[in-house]
Automatic annotation (TrEMBL):
Protein name: Thioredoxin domain-containing protein
Gene3D superfamilies: Glutaredoxin (3.40.30.10)
Taxonomic placement: Bacteria, Pseudomonadati, Pseudomonadota, Alphaproteobacteria, Rhodobacterales
Pfam name, any one: Thioredoxin_4
Signal peptide annotation: none
Residue intervals of the Thioredoxin domain: 23-224
Function of the molecule: May be required for disulfide bond formation in some proteins.
Domain of life per record: Bacteria
Length: 225
């Protein structure tokens, strides 16, 4: 189970988008705090307006039961969940309108943030389809090597999903969006005490990763209450 490295105490990403795509990238650290500008950062999540960040939602928005998944695109356990249990959850509860499902990204590392920026580039309509492609290809793009190679592989996924090259480039270069996403993650993680992925919040109660049979029991109990 992948553990949270940190909840950022401060974050500044001036030029992050350009930094992500240049050849002069430096270390492929898995610590967000190593991003340019963090050493002297004075901002915190409270200084960033995160109201522009949209929750990615499936199912019935008015359902009595809400299941929120917290996941990282670089988390192998999350990829496993999306390859199997998520598809069962979707068939049993999401597509049938029994629950409202919310997917929220967790950023343990820079590649996870980049993957999120690509997934969100297609908006709500394409997000889950792109997320599926990102998880399916996780073992390839996440191990591509240098940061520039990782971003190049993620760009391929975006293009495969039908996002125009100019649109995709703009998304990857959006430093303000990157900072806002990190602040949004920070707020969510602190509020719901997220320390590992995947984690699930079912009608306000947090649960760690579990077999689908256990999740089904919890959801059915919530539906019957």
């Amino acid at each position: 189970m992948q553990r949270r490295n940190l909840i950022l105490g401060g974050f500044a990403v001036a030029g992050l988008g350009g930094w992500a795509l240049t050849s002069n990238l430096g270390s492929n650290s898995t610590d967000i705090a190593s991003m340019p500008g963090t050493a002297n950062a004075q901002t915190s999540s409270g200084d960033v307006d995160t109201s522009s960040i949209q929750d990615m939602v499936q199912g019935n928005p008015d359902a009595a039961v809400t299941v929120t998944e917290y996941a990282s695109f670089t988390c192998p356990h999350c990829a496993t969940f999306h390859a199997g249990p998520y598809k069962q959850l979707k068939a049993d509860y999401i597509d049938t309108g029994k629950i409202k499902f919310i997917y929220r990204e967790v950023y343990f590392d820079r590649p996870g943030l980049w993957a999120s920026m690509v997934a969100r580039c297609g908006g709500q309509e394409k997000f889950f389809g792109i997320a599926d492609l990102i998880y399916k290809g996780q073992s390839e793009w996440a191990r591509a090597g240098e940061p520039a190679a990782i971003v190049a592989e993620l760009r391929k996924i975006g293009l495969l999903a039908g996002i125009g090259n100019d649109t995709l480039e703009a998304c990857l270069q959006d430093a303000e969006m990157a900072q806002t996403l990190v602040a949004w993650y920070q707020e969510n993680g602190e509020r719901d005490d997220i320390s590992s992925t995947p984690s699930f919040v079912i009608n306000g109660t947090k649960h760690s990763n579990m077999p689908y049979t256990e999740m089904k029991e919890l959801i059915d109990a919530a539906l019957d209450s």
